[in-house]
Specification:
This protein is of the alpha/beta class. Helix content is 25%, strand content 12%. It is built from eight helices and six strands. Strand 5, helix 2 and strand 6 form a beta-alpha-beta unit. The longest helix has 10 residues.
Length: 269
């Protein structure tokens, strides 16, 4: 597998190549999941061209390498613009927060052949609706896992929290395979903490012409979302912050949907 790093530590891993001029850059959600979470989607996509898994510096398994700076989050998310340097006809495939990162970097707008958004959003207006929905759809064991993560944030407790929320993210038939996928991801709680402090609550797309009105979801909530991040204190605040969901209700996908179709998950409508 070819690997390359940009001057600021963005990592690109070439995972497939087929006839075609395009470079497809798969940017994962989370953050804190790593681009391994999109390997199944990239493998199943069958698109023409070259496919790259992209990790911002300090995210997922893109840590501990000489190419990654000591303060990897200092230039998030704008460092994502470096990923297209030296590549032609780039298409960014942004999953959840990965799509939001792309939309928050106006320098990308004129440098891409296309932008593909998978369960992403133009602003943070979906969050309170989702939090209300999450409170009405409890998952056994999720509350305890959220409390443990809030008390001791770490890669291990983040993994446990994500696994506890798996029933929200996979069909019954795909739950075992889904848990196996989640268990093997390179979690990074420091990336989660950065997004909590500097991005999630105030995010709005920065590209010209992108509407940022809150999506018109009903109180029934989103249809498909992915993993969880705990926040705050107390049972309701620490249960989830904005990234868990269900495959069964609502008219549209929300940020966080996990879509590697070979892993037994619900795909977007």
């Amino acid at each position: 597998m070819e690997e390359r790093w940009t001057p600021s530590g963005v990592r690109l891993r070439r995972v497939a190549a087929a006839p075609g001029p395009w470079n497809w850059l798969f940017v994962p959600g989370g953050p804190g999941l790593g681009s391994e979470s999109l390997a199944g989607l990239a493998d199943a996509s069958g698109v023409p061209g070259t496919l790259w898994l992209v990790d911002l510096p300090g995210d997922g398994s893109n840590r501990g390498h000489s190419a990654v700076p000591d303060r990897p989050f200092d230039h998030w998310p704008h460092v994502l613009a470096e990923a297209v340097d030296g590549l032609e006809q780039c298409v960014v495939v942004g999953h959840s927060t990965g799509g939001m990162f792309a939309l928050s970097v106006p320098a990308l707008a004129d440098r891409l052949s296309a932008l593909v958004l998978v369960s992403s959003a133009p602003d943070a207006g979906w969050r309170p609706i989702f939090e209300e929905w999450a409170g009405a759809h409890p998952v056994p064991g999720l509350e305890d896992a959220a409390q443990l993560y809030a008390a001791a944030p770490g890669d291990g407790t983040l993994r446990d929290l994500t696994l506890a929320a798996a029933p929200w993210n996979f069909t019954e038939a795909g739950l075992t395979t889904g848990r196996k996928l989640l268990a093997g991801l390179p979690y990074c709680h420091e990336a989660v903490a950065w997004a909590d402090a500097h991005f999630d609550a105030d995010y709005r797309a920065a590209w010209r012409g992108v509407r940022t009105a809150s999506p018109p979801w009903s109180s029934a909530g989103p249809r498909t979302t992915s993993w969880t991040r705990a926040c705050g204190s107390g049972p309701r605040a620490s249960r989830v912050r904005a990234c868990c969901g269900t495959p069964s209700t609502g008219p549209a996908t929300s940020p966080g949907s996990r879509t590697p179709v070979r892993c037994g998950t619900r795909s977007p409508p």
